[in-house]
Structure formats: C-alpha cells, structure tokens
Amino acid sequence: PEPKRRRAEAGDGAGEAAGDGAEAEAEAGAGAGAEPSPGAPFPLSSVRLRRLLRDSAREKAAFVHGQVTGPSGEDTDAVLILEKTPFQEEKIEELLRKHTRLELQMANDIYSTYRLYPPPELSEIKTTVVYPATEKHLQKYLRQEVHLIRESWEDYKNITLPFIQSQSFSIQWVYNILEKKAEADRIIHENQDPSNGFVLVPDFKWNQNQLYDLYLIALIQRRDVKSLRDLTGEHLPLLKNILQEGKEAIVKRFGVPGSQLRIYLHYQPSYYHLHVHFTALGYDAPGTSVERAHLLADVIDNLVLDSSYYQKRALTFALRADEPLLKKFQEAGRV
Ligand code: GTA
Description:
Elements: H1 24-30, E1 48-56, E2 61-69, E3 75-84, H2 89-98, E4 101-108, E5 111-117, E6 125-130, H3 135-141, E7 146-151, H4 153-166, H5 172-178, E8 189-191, E9 198-202, E10 215-220, H6 236-254, E11 261-266, E12 275-280, E13 293-295, H7 296-305, E14 315-320, H8 324-331
Antiparallel strand pairs: 1-2, 2-3, 3-6, 4-5, 7-14, 8-9, 9-10, 10-12, 11-12, 11-13
Subunit structure: Homodimer. Associates with components of the exosome multienzyme ribonuclease complex, such as EXOSC3 and EXOSC4. Interacts with NDOR1.
Active site: 275
EC number: 3.6.1.59
C-alpha cells in the first residue's frame, strides 16, 4: 500500500522545511522538523523497512526506504544509507586478535577462505539518515535507468532554470553550516569574505577515519550562485580562493597534497548553492563520471578565456528516467 506522507513532505518545492538531508548528528542542530522533538536522536530501532531502493556490492552499501510511525499514528518516510567502512590499517591487527569467531569455508592446497566475525567496536556500519525524506529523496536513491541530456544555454533558461526554481532540494543544511548552526566543530577552513569566501567541511559521505576515501566540500558564503551555469569572470577570485586555500588547508590538516586531490563541481548538482567537491584522487567517489564532474582548474581557465563561457556552451548531464526535468526536456522535444 502507498505509505502515508507527512504534510510537510507533500511539496518538494524550494520552500520545503528545514531538515532536508542532514545526517543524524547535524539534524540535532538543524531541527529536522519531524514529529520527534528537535535534537532527539533518530529512532533507528523503530524503523520499518519498506523497500531496498538500491544496493551496491562494489560499494558495500544499501540504500533503504524506511518508515517511522509517530505518536499520532502518522507514517514518516526516511532514507537510510548503510555502508561498510573501509579498513583502517592500524585496526587490522586488533581485528585479527580480537575476532569473536572464525569459520572455515573451504580449504584447498595452500588456499583457504573464512568467515571472520569482528567484535562490535571493529564492525562499524556508517549510517546516513535523511529524515523526514521527501519523495524526491526516495527517487534520488532508487536505482533507475539514466538518459543523457545536452543542454544549450537557451534550454537552461527556458527549461532547467524555471524547473529548479519551482522545485529543488532544500539547501537549509548549507545555510546551517554557513551560519554555524550545524557542523561548526567540523569546519576545516573558513574564509569569511562575503563575496569571495567559503567554508570547507568534511562531506557527510566521509567518516574521516581513513584518508583513502577523503571527501570534503567547499560551500561559498554568497547565496546568489546556484551552479556552474551562473559562473562568470566576476567569480574568478572566489574560485581561485577555493582552489588555493582548499588545497593548503587539506595538506595542512590531512597531509594530502594538491596533486592527489580531485577538485570539481557537479553539473547538475543536487543542491543549488555553489559548492566544490574535494576527493582523494585514488578514490572512485560517486559522481566523478565525465557527464557530471567539472574540474575546478578547468572551470577557472574557461572563465579566464571567456567570462561568459558557461552562458554560451552546451553542457551534458544524465537524468534518471522518472525525473520530472527529463519529462520537461521530452515535452520540449529536446530528447
Ligand atoms: N557535510 O548535511 C550535510 C550534507 N548534505 C545534505 C549533503 N552533503 C552534505 N555534507 C555535509 N553535511 O557530496 C554533501 C553530499 C554531496 C554534496 C552535494 O554535499 O554528500 P551535489 O549537490 O553535487 O549532489 O553535492 P550529489 O553529489 O548528488 O549529492 P549526494 O546527495 O551525495 O548524491 C550522491 C549520489 O551518489 C546519489 O544519487 C547516490 O545514489 C549516490 N551514492 C553512491 N554512494 C553513495 C554514498 N555512499 N552516500 C551517498 N550517496 C551515494
């Protein structure tokens, strides 16, 4: 049966309530807007599993649609992302010594495989919670076919821009970081200049336990730049600050040099407040495919060559089969 939805979730529009996409920890500061009182921990053990949206054997991750029933009997949707975490070198010896059980699966000559059961403190599962989740979140994590779009500047103005203005994910979590209402203790670097400043924080995909999957995100202070499409030569000082200061802050804090970082923007992003991704070069982070990632150094060079480069050229991106934006492109005869 179709699950009941909370009133606040009915619209996925820009006016959506705070609490969109915040991790449980950040949710406390953001005030998730769900029935439980703000700051209350997410009631993980009372989640009912509705369906598995997607799983990935390679990433060892499951994307789950769950529901929580509130005191008034209303069901609220949640998305849970469960991920096995990478091994930490310094914990491996402990794991071998402290395992709780070891079952031989097969042995053949010099080869054998086992099932090793680690103690709880060494079997962490990174759990990301989106609660309350909107229909758009459920769609985002559902495995679906994708289609490539080639968006001209006219397409952007006539199709994409009106669409993202009418409905896109709330960016309240970004404002919470900029205003120090959430994740303030996680800030790695901050440039407070209102035009050319930014805040660098660990992305919520990274648990910071190991550098293998290092992932940080730079959020710009100004609130009038939605995406790559808005960028002009005017933004060069901002972009150069992000590139330069971001690299410096990461080598200082984590010891990873700029030559081992992939620094890029997404087009289309999920959240329309300009931000830059910093990931470890050796890590195949989600969203690094050629149809989505634009290297910041290339973006800067393009804008130096032509201040209105991103208001002229066509940009390619993929859309999931049931995304309303794809329908808009189809209706306009552009797919
Ligand atoms: N610090 O509250 C937050 C927060 N939120 C809500 C989002 N981010 C946050 N970071 C902090 N605090 O890298 C991060 C996201 C993302 C960035 C936004 O902000 O982790 P974007 O606008 O370009 O959108 O970036 P993107 O990349 O689509 O974001 P998102 O939400 O991570 O989606 C990733 C896609 O990759 C999804 O479609 C998902 O299906 C897929 N995916 C694969 N593996 C994972 C995974 N382990 N975790 C999450 N998504 C994954």
